[in-house]
Amino acid sequence: MITRIRQKITRNLLNIPGWRTDRRIVVIESDDWGTIRMASKEAYNYFMSIGYPVDKCPYNRFDALESNDDLELLFEVLTSVKDVNGNPAVITANSLVANPDFSKIKADRFENYYFEPITTTLQKYPNHDKVYKLVKDGIEHKVFKPQFHGREHLNVHRWMEALLRRERSVIEAFNWNMFSVHAGNDPGNRLEFMDALYCENRDQLNQLSGVLDDGVKIFRQLWGYDSKSFIANCYIWNKELEPFLKSNGVEYIQGVVYQNAPLLREGMGNSRIFHYQGQRNSVGQRYFVRNAFFEPSVARPAFDSLSDCLKRVSTAFFWEKPAIISSHRLNYIGFIDPENRDRNLKTLKKLLSGIKQRWPQVEFMTSDQLGDLMNGMKDQHCNA
């Protein structure tokens, strides 16, 4: 009982400060599109056979590079529900644009890092030959809008150091063309190299500007436009990177209520910076705060993701806030386990239908559309 009361208080406090609107706006932000994770069912079975508890990590158990079937079935659900303006539900697909080029890295004996664009990676996977075209179609039909999530979902510096040290789990993963595998509890690598923008000194920070520069250029080449929003991997980034992102067209920074900001002192970790909905930073960018969550693949077995998400949407609307729903890619991936995708898509359809039924005036938007609305609104509901 006490836990439920605390959760309710937290949900409400999260929605009190910041930008307001009486419009019923729903944004679904989905991270990790384009990155590799578990390479295949065969890879999964191999790691289980050597004692790695990959079944205990949902991202190792379910997540993989999105396939043709994954996108086709997701788009089918999104187009089945329309908002008050006749627009389908839409995913803001926070996307990585590159992955490691394992062959070149191996040929160079782990001395230097090389990457390849996502279009090249897709050619190496079965049932992935239509993915690039499907994403293009999703953009055209307004059900899928890629936004920038980084060059790759990888802390290159730490990963390359681990490869040079020939760490067993890192080499095992590398042999399957993977950079992340759950090998058990490792306090020194809790995020499994996924924290791409973590840095321990200014030299590393400066290198990250080059990584992001590569990324925004590839994003533009892939999708034909600049990304107006950005979300950092694992919600970790240094504020000094924000002006660089601004200069490359990023006006809105997605995230949760806190930012993990590297302290630039070796071994010191991160400091937490609080953000509220629509808050502006020193260069005029706005922060978005996710205030609802639909993450059934990572939830406890007894947890009702559908009911919890609807409650959070209701709380957001009560406080005249847009409902920004976090829903990572792994929820919609069936390449490793088709039942995971099929089960969650059924629940997603119930969620979207439930929102439409309860709030007939709902408007489905992408993150960049919401940001543009925030910046253009001049009426009494804009108090930021």
Walk me through what this model shows.
- It contains 14 helices and 13 strands.
- It is α/β, with parallel strands linked by helices.
- The strands form four sheets. Strands 1, 2, 5, 11, 12 and 13 form a six-stranded parallel β-sheet that branches. Strands 6-7-10 form a three-stranded parallel β-sheet.
- A hairpin with a 7-residue loop joins β8 and β9.
- α4 (68-78) packs parallel to α7 (131-140), α4 packs parallel to α13 (338-358) and α12 runs parallel beside α13 (338-358).
- The chain is globular, with a radius of gyration of 20 Å.
How is this structure best summarized?
The protein has 384 residues and is α/β, with parallel strands linked by helices. 39% of the residues lie in helices and 13% in strands.
Total strands: the figure is 13
Order of helices and strands: HEHHHEEHEHHEHHHEHEEEEEHEHEH
Strand content: 5-15%
Roughly what percent helix?
25-40%
Outline the low-pLDDT stretches: 378-384
Major sheet size, sense and barrel closure: 6 strands, parallel
Structural class by helix and strand composition = alpha/beta
**Average residue-wise pLDDT:** 95
Tell me the distance between the termini.
35 Å
Shape: globular
Cα-based radius of gyration, to the nearest Å: 20 Å
Number of helices: 14
Please name the defining characteristics of this protein.
384 residues, alpha/beta, six-stranded parallel β-sheet, three-stranded parallel β-sheet, 13% strand
Layout of SSEs?
Blueprint: H1 2-15, E1 25-33, H2 41-49, H3 58-62, H4 68-78, E2 91-95, E3 98-100, H5 102-107, E4 115-117, H6 118-122, H7 131-140, E5 144-148, H8 156-164, H9 168-175, H10 202-223, E6 229-230, H11 242-247, E7 252-253, E8 258-262, E9 270-274, E10 286-287, E11 292-293, H12 305-318, E12 323-326, H13 338-358, E13 363-365, H14 367-376
Parallel strand pairs: 1-2, 1-12, 1-13, 2-5, 6-7, 7-10, 11-12
Antiparallel strand pairs: 3-4, 8-9
Helix pairs in contact: 4-7, 4-13, 12-13
